Structures are given as structure tokens and as C-alpha cells.
């Protein structure tokens, strides 16, 4: 009868020391700190908000002088070849027109505008067909360097969004990303100013030209 074979020796697990645990804790803390220091994707891709006065707002490749504001409930527009009769253009809210003088400073292109309300909602300027005012609406109008243009942007928004609204401007047709400038103009529409605009709003404003 053969003798039983000796049992294989059990592997000894390394004994953790308090110094090892301390180094691991410190390493994890360093990783967390580095991640907190990194900006999020949203922050890196968001435009750089740049406050500017209405009298002289300037951004990448543009300069703007913001003029009068006017509110109307509807616009009376002159007919054209496709629709010869005059027509009334209404809105579900109110129309806000922002008169301005604009200029490209370096190269030709387009200047876009939007209204940002005090609660963060954004209303983009209407396209050139709404209202259709050739030579006056600034939406999608190509600008040439050194040739100032005058006109207006038109916005449709609820009347209760006027108070605290800001005008925001950016070069090109797409909202800037990657730290590009988004110029923010405070329209000074406090409660009294907003009420005044609404009180003076005409049921139908004649824009026939």
C-alpha cells in the first residue's frame, strides 16, 4: 500500500499594508480631482457668451448698432407678383421688431439673431418670407465688408416673454460652438418698458413699402 502523496503547498496571498492602501486612496483622489477640473463636453462646445452694449455690439466679423424696438399684433404687407392683394400677417403671440445697423468687418456672410428670454427660452428671428420685406429684413441678408446695412429682425413670441428679453447675435447661420462668441445685448426691457411696448402695440402695423 503506497503512502499518500503530500498535499500541494497553498499559495500565500500578499499581505496588504496600510501604506499600500494609502497610496491607492491618494491615486483615486487625484483621478477624481483631475476629472472635476476638466470641462464637460457641453461646456467645451458651448459658445462664449459676450455681453455688449446696444449702442455698439461687436463680435467675430461683425459690428451692430441696435435701434428701436416695436411690438405689433399683426403686419399689413403689400402684395407681390404671386399674391397681388395686400395681406395681413398675424402671429399666435406678438411681433417684436428690432431695428439695427449692421456691418461685416472682415469677410462677407450672414449675421443671425435670436431672442433669449429671462427663463432661458430662445426665439430665432423669422425667415425673410415672414414677413416678406425685401431690402429691409436682416434675416439671411448677405453682408459685405465695409458696407453697412440697415433694417430689422422680426421675432414671434408670447407677450409675457418680453420682460427681461436679451438680443443675441452670432456670425453665420449656425449657433456658434467651441468657444466662439455669442454676443448678448440687454434690451433693457424691465417690467415698465415691456408694458409700455405692449400698450403701444398696434393691432395691425402697416409695413407696406
Give the secondary structure arrangement, pairings included:
Blueprint (H helix, E strand, L loop, with lengths): L17 H20 L3 H5 L2 E5 L4 E3 L2 E16 L9 E18 L6 E6 L5 E3 L24 E9 L8 E6 L9 E6 L4 H10 L4 E2 L3
Parallel strand pairs: 1-9, 3-10
Antiparallel strand pairs: 2-3, 3-4, 4-7, 5-6, 5-8, 8-9
Description:
The chain has three helices and ten strands. The chain has helices at residues 18-37, 41-45, 191-200; strands spanning 48-52, 57-59, 62-77, 87-104, 111-116, 122-124, 149-157, 166-171, 181-186, 205-206. The protein has a five-stranded mixed beta sheet with strand order 1-9-8-5-6, with no helix packed on it. Strands 2, 3, 4, 7 and 10 form a five-stranded mixed beta sheet that branches. The longest helix has 20 residues, at 18-37.
Main attributes?
209 residues; alpha+beta; five-stranded mixed β-sheet; 3 helices; 17% helix; globular
Overview in brief:
The chain has three helices and ten strands. It is α+β, with helices and mostly antiparallel strands.
Amino acid at each position: 500500500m503506497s503512502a499518500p502523496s503530500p498535499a500541494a503547498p497553498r499559495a500565500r496571498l500578499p499581505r496588504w499594508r496600510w501604506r499600500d492602501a494609502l497610496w491607492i486612496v491618494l491615486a483615486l483622489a487625484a483621478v477624481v480631482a483631475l476629472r472635476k477640473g476638466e470641462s464637460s463636453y457641453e461646456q467645451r462646445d458651448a459658445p462664449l457668451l459676450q455681453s455688449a452694449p446696444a449702442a455698439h455690439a461687436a463680435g467675430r466679423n461683425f459690428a451692430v448698432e441696435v435701434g428701436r424696438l416695436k411690438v405689433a399684433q399683426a403686419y399689413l404687407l403689400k402684395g407681390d407678383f404671386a399674391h397681388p392683394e395686400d395681406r395681413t400677417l398675424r402671429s399666435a403671440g406678438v411681433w417684436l421688431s428690432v431695428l439695427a445697423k449692421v456691418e461685416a468687418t472682415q469677410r462677407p456672410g450672414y449675421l443671425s439673431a435670436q431672442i433669449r428670454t429671462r427663463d432661458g427660452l430662445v426665439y430665432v428671428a423669422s425667415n425673410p418670407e415672414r414677413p416678406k420685406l425685401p431690402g429691409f429684413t436682416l434675416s439671411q441678408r448677405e453682408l459685405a465688408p465695409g458696407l453697412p446695412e440697415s433694417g430689422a429682425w422680426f421675432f414671434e413670441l408670447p407677450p409675457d416673454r418680453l420682460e427681461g428679453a436679451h438680443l443675441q447675435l452670432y456670425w453665420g447661420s449656425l449657433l456658434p460652438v467651441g468657444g466662439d462668441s455669442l454676443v448678448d445685448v440687454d434690451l433693457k426691457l424691465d417690467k415698465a418698458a415691456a408694458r409700455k411696448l405692449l400698450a403701444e402695440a398696434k393691432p395691425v402695423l402697416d409695413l407696406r413699402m
